[in-house]
Amino acid sequence: MGKYSLEAVTRLDASSNFALGKVWGVFPSVGAGWVVSKENFFKDNVEFINFLKLRASYGIVGNSSIDAWLWKERYRVDVSGYLYNNTLQGGLNPDRIPNPDISWESKRTFNAGLEMAMWRDKITFNIDVFQNHGYDMFDKGADASFPAFAGLCSSRG
Q1: For residue 42, which phi and psi values (nearest 5 degrees)?
Q2: What is the pTM of this model?
């Protein structure tokens, strides 16, 4: 009769940006709606509202838009970076500290809404409230102000 709606979706995505075991992400969502204006108790008692619908949805969405291969060690060639026997020597420097735990960024979303039409659609009204909560978000951390390495020195006296 078109009074109720229920929808469930699950998305399964893969990304080569992540290490084995973290490649796949599962993102479910569910939504429901109720057209109150089709119920007899409403139609018989409220004449000026010709359409009233309540709806809500909840889901998780994922994001893999991060730099690739951050889970893997990488090095860069430094042709004159080391002093050995009073001569500069070439070598390899770590380019990134690997993080094998990097995985999907996720966001929980909740949405609730009301749709209404009154006086034979002369006035329509929609209202939505929502909340987004991000978690497992990725922060590169290091920048020019806070490098991802430190040099430590100890001396014995």
Answers
A1: -85, -50
A2: 0.68
Coil, strand or helix at 133: strand
Range list of H helices, 10-123: 40-43
Pairing of strands 105-118, 87-96: unpaired
Report whether 3 contacts 32 (CB < 8 A): no
Q: Which residues pair with 26 in a beta bridge?
A: 12
Residues in the chain: 157
Q: How far apart are CA 142 and CA 54, in angstroms?
A: 46
Q: Domain locations in the chain?
A: 4-66+102-135, 68-101
Contact 77, 90 (CB under 8 A): yes
Residue among 23, 29, 30 nearest 104 (CA): 23
Closest CA to 106 of 21, 29, 25, 24: 25
Confirm if 73 and 96 have CB atoms less than 8 A apart: yes
pLDDT tens-digit map of 51-70: 999 999 999 999 888 877 78
